[in-house]
Structures are given as C-alpha cells and as structure tokens.
C-alpha cells in the first residue's frame, strides 16, 4: 500500500500528467451538452451516468448515445461557438504551473476531439497532446458515426493511451487525474491516480481512489510546498 506522502512525491516529480476532460477539466459532460443542443438531453444523461458508473461497456454506451443524438457537424460547431464548455476553477493555474515545471500535460478523453481541441486551446495544450474520440460526418455534414479505432472509444482505452505514452516518450512517472471509473482503471499503467470530485462525485471513485480531491487548489498547493 503506497502511503499518501509517497503519492504526493510521485505527483510532484511526475514527467507527465494526464487529465480526463468531461467533469474534470471542464464542468460539463460534452456528450450531454451535445444531446441538449439536439433535443435528447434527458435520455442521454441517464445513459452517461450508467457509462461513467462502469455498468455498460464504454464503446456500446457511446454508440448507443450517439445513435440517439445524431449530431451534425453544424450542431457541434454551434455548441462550441454559442455555448462553449466552462473550465473548472483552478485548472488553468494548475496546467500552467505544471508546464512551467516542464511537465508534459495531456488530455485523454472519451469525449469528442472537436470539443477537446477547443478546451486545449484555452489551456495552451498542443493538439498533439490530445487523445479523444473523432466524430465522422458525411460530406453534407450529417452524422456518420465515430472512429471506432481510437483507443479512447473503448473500455480500458485510457490505460492503453498511457501505456503508449510511456513507450513513445519513455516517461518514468505518469499521473492520471479524473472523475470517472474509466480514469481510475488507467492506473496501472499510470503510476498514480488522483480522483477528482469538484464537479460531480462518483461514489465508486471516491470510495476506491487512494487520493481524492474536490478542488485543484489542493494540487497547486502540493507543487508550491
């Protein structure tokens, strides 16, 4: 059993920190916001809750929700232009503090690349540090499915991304931070998982995470000590 002070030591010496996006870096769940714009909010948010609780295989839950939403390219662009996601308080400062320390920051999301790219641009995270699902559209802009080959489209996908990052960049210590079951499952291969409950508390994560926070200020404080 790793002690809390050891976990903190790993966080402060990590060479890469990976963040989940929905309900962690941003306050909303992107897929629920898309559902709201497309008029199927209630049905989809219930499905999201089940997917995040780990009761339904991730890819099946994603396919099922997208089949219901059928988002067009225009609707995705409208969401980003008119009602963009809100950053969680403290995330901007935390990411910039990590970057000052030459820590690589990645966004690993089961959400959609177009929305995650918008979020990354607000945090000065390069597009090459994004791993997320890609929506597919027909030439007329209608929904045509999603790229099922992306590792983030399936259960265990975030762990696969972290394993890939370790192999590619030879990172010694990677920290994963997120609110959901799919984030917690990414450790191992991540060296430390920090559960985040600042936007929504998932009981399964709160009960099982060795380190659980509800405010990014707690991590900023660690870096300043």
TrEMBL record:
Record-listed E.C. numbers: 3.1.3.3
Molecular-function GO term, any one: protein homodimerization activity
Origin superkingdom: Eukaryota
Pathway: Amino-acid biosynthesis; L-serine biosynthesis; L-serine from 3-phospho-D-glycerate: step 3/3
SUPFAM superfamilies, A to Z: HAD-like (SSF56784)
Any coiled-coil regions, as ranges: none
Cofactor(s) needed: Mg(2+)
Catalytic reactions of this protein: O-phospho-L-serine + H2O = L-serine + phosphate; O-phospho-D-serine + H2O = D-serine + phosphate
This protein's GO CC annotations: cytoplasm
Annotated InterPro entries: HAD-like_SerB, HAD-like_sf, HAD_sf, PSP
Gene3D superfamilies the UniProt entry points to: HAD superfamily/HAD-like (3.40.50.1000)
Record's keyword terms, sorted: Amino-acid biosynthesis, Hydrolase, Magnesium, Metal-binding, Serine biosynthesis
An example Gene Ontology biological process: in utero embryonic development
Active site: residue positions: 20, 22
Protein function: Catalyzes the last irreversible step in the biosynthesis of L-serine from carbohydrates, the dephosphorylation of O-phospho-L-serine to L-serine. L-serine can then be used in protein synthesis, to produce other amino acids, in nucleotide metabolism or in glutathione synthesis, or can be racemized to D-serine, a neuromodulator. May also act on O-phospho-D-serine.
Family listed: Belongs to the HAD-like hydrolase superfamily. SerB family.
Full protein name: Phosphoserine phosphatase
UniProt lineage: Eukaryota, Metazoa, Chordata, Craniata, Vertebrata
Gene: PSPH
